[in-house]
Design a protein that fits this description.
Layout (H helix, E strand, L loop, with lengths): L2 H34 L2 H16 L3 H9 L3 H7 L5 H15 L3 H9 L3 H7 L5 H15 L5 H5 L3 H11 L2 H15 L14 H10 L5 H13 L3 H9 L3 H11 L2 H17 L1 H10 L3 H10 L2 H14 L10 H16 L4 H19 L1 H10 L9
Helix pairs in contact: 1-2, 2-5, 4-5, 5-8, 7-8, 8-11, 10-11, 11-13, 12-13, 12-15, 13-16, 15-16, 15-18, 16-17, 16-19, 18-19, 18-21, 20-21
Amino acid sequence: MGHEENKNKAATDQEEEAWNQRKQALIEELSDKLINGDLETKIEAARDIRKVVKKSSLKTRSEFAAAGVVQPLVLMLVSPNLDAIESSLLALLNLAVRNERNKVKIATAGAIPPLVELLKFQNGTLRELAAAAILTLSAAAPNKPAIAASGAAPLLVQILHSGSVQGRVDAVTALHYLSTCKENSSPILDATAVPPLINLLKDCKKYSKFAEKATALLEILSSSEEGRIAITNSDGGILTLVETVEDGSLVSTQHAVGALLSLCQSCRDKYRQLILKEGAIPGLLRLTVEGTFEAQERARTLLDLLRDTPQEKRLSSSVLEKIVYDIAARVDGADKAAETAKRLLQDMVQRSMELSMTRIQQRAASSAPSKIPSA
């Protein structure tokens, strides 16, 4: 390393050290205002913390938490002053983003009960900020049991009915996180969540991450009779699941076919015609070839249930695949049989889908553009 390079490195190190000293002084100043100041000073400090943290690294978030800002911010959540609530919410949100330790620290400091109370507010801005905070905190596994037990879920479902687009997206994501909590002793959702979930799934891109979360929740709801009735009674409920089987990602197709299978397994006589009427067969056939292993198994089972022949005479999907494989082995030999069989099955799917193309084109022509973010 030459003299000039050494000189440049020393200058860079000095600049970094000076910045760290200024940053530490700022952290101490803002934490002191937040802990010891009057209400207006606390509000100003919370806003400044949000601004600093929003542009800073994970390390800076941790340094603010270590300086003791979390507890006074949580206490501001119960203030009668709406500006104090909003400024503390925004500061806490920014402290928690991409920082697992801060998420846990905020929950441990007692943030969950006041956040749940804020979900009851008529003030839409504060209510949806609280939903965003619940979402952020529920991303940390240690927080899920406490949030799931807090009564947040029914309030998040209310946001699904009446919130803004972003509020509804946050509510779905939070509910999805909470649904994966293994400590849940009882379901966090009831059938009232079905209609807004179906409407949101209608409006979003079926291959989006959002659709994956919405279909996961619908699959959970399809395990109860109330949930199945709600799916059937929702305008376009079964059709929306069928469309997701056709157009969804690997994850959303697996959940969608799981929900349809729950319906048909619960009462074949009741649900078989309803599913067939929406043109489910082409998408299910394609799923037996292109889906995840679990989705393929579910699609085969559902196809067997949808067939009109008696149980003892029914040609199962697995038998059909074996017949195609045997034909392929005779034509191209055992070493190429799997590839040939897959191609033959794909051709069968394609022909079946062509028979339903008019219906699909009509549906596509009448559909509205998506308003739901694809993330």
